[in-house]
UniProtKB/TrEMBL annotation:
It comes from Paraburkholderia phymatum (strain DSM 17167 / CIP 108236 / LMG 21445 / STM815) (Burkholderia phymatum). Pfam families: Bac_luciferase. The keyword Thylakoid does not apply. Residues 22-383 form the Luciferase-like domain. InterPro entries: Diverse_substr_monoxygenases (IPR051260), Luciferase-like_dom (IPR011251), Luciferase-like_sf (IPR036661), NTA_MOA (IPR016215). Belongs to the NtaA/SnaA/DszA monooxygenase family. This is Xenobiotic compound monooxygenase, DszA family, A subunit. The lineage of its organism: Bacteria, Pseudomonadati, Pseudomonadota, Betaproteobacteria, Burkholderiales. Keywords: Flavoprotein, FMN, Monooxygenase, Oxidoreductase.
Amino acid sequence: MMKLGGLFHPTGNHIAAWLSPDSQLDAGSNFQHYVKLAKTAEAARFDLLFLADAAAVRGGDLAALSRWPQYMAYFEPTTLLAGIAAMTQHIGLVATATTSYNEPYNIARRYASLDHISAGRAGWNVVTSSNLDESMNFGRDEHFSHETRYERAREFVGVVRGLWDSWEDDAFIRDRESGVYFRPDSLHTLDHRGTHFSVRGPLNIARPPQGHPVIAQAGSSNDGMELAAETAEIVFTAQHTLEKAKAFYDDLKSRMSRYGRQPEQLKIMPGLNPVIGSTREEAKQRHAELQAMIQPEVGLELLSNALGGFDLRGYDLDGPLPGTISAENTNTSKSTVQSVLDMANRENLTIRQLYQKMAGARGQRTIIGTPVDIADEMEAWFRAEAVDGFLVQPAVLPGDLDVFAATVVPELQRRGLFRTKYEGATLRENLGLTRPANRFTKAGSQ
Ligand SMILES: Cc1cc2nc3c(=O)[nH]c(=O)nc-3n(C[C@H](O)[C@H](O)[C@H](O)COP(=O)(O)O)c2cc1C
């Protein structure tokens, strides 16, 4: 079965979503808006909802930024997910937390708590941070180098997983008769001393219901793929052609054997930005309307961000990108820069055409068509074993999620490609992932 996640940027994935009368204008600080999205996605049997994050407002040209709400007024996502957990029962709850500007103990504790609060539905999207401005909120003048970020991320994830094993599953016997609350021999101290972190442990919360909350990863550079091959159970990635998606899928899954892992232990879910109409004409028209709302200065700012902060002001918008931009020289997301450059080359786009394309879908693949067209494309990629599922990023929220849930999901279900009821109780079970054994227990604790 195909896996489905929803990435819900507050007013929607389209950069001009907030200008649409159909969007929830104050979405970034409106809790009920997210509850509604979660309930819709849950009724449609989505595996998970995912909230991206950055611990900084975006830097850049303030006049342009003031026309774009993303990350300007934005909930801390694990706090938000804890609230959503209380209002839902099945849907997985995945949020980003950066390994560059956190400590492993805090993250282990936060996601273990979310896993308990949601009864086994938590997931952690491990990022190394693509927003350079985060560094300035955490005692640094500049971002760690790409290499250091990934080295730190690898150690960070190892520590977090070790901390989640602090307690055996049955440690808390809470026996009033004997007066013993927990079994002392079920408590394990990690005693980690590494390059970036020293963490004694143990964690002050019982082992999470899933053993470990599910680990997602969204960096697609070589370093990112290596980290994912070793540790990730879900990978979010931007893929635009079936050929590239298949190559990425095969490459990443083949790397897993180096870490003693099976391909089924990782679900690869590229982003998908569906623009749906009851006819193709209607879908095209809707897309054109959305694109027409993009404010040029915002589009340019987003493109400049995606290219690692390259200042494009002053260049001819109807000419090509300057040839000096390269993914290798960037300290932000190498895979994002590469994906934008590939898109510009593949389709021979001017700067204006490129920002319109980028800004509309925020770098993700767009499919414009009827529900059947969209299901056809999804089915083709799935049957080609280029994906395990998709991360659906509706253009305007809440309306475009409602439409996807009411039209594309039943079409996928009719074709036998997507579930009609949840298989398990936890995110891990619904994704078909095994529950990790406790490293401190000989046979592993299940
Ligand atoms: C679907 C998707 C979601 C992402 N979410 C975040 C996020 O929430 N925060 C963040 O800093 N980076 C996010 N990223 C970027 C990557 O996680 C990563 O930090 C960045 O791409 C740098 O890694 P790379 O050079 O290996 O690609 C996301 C990427 C994708 C494709």
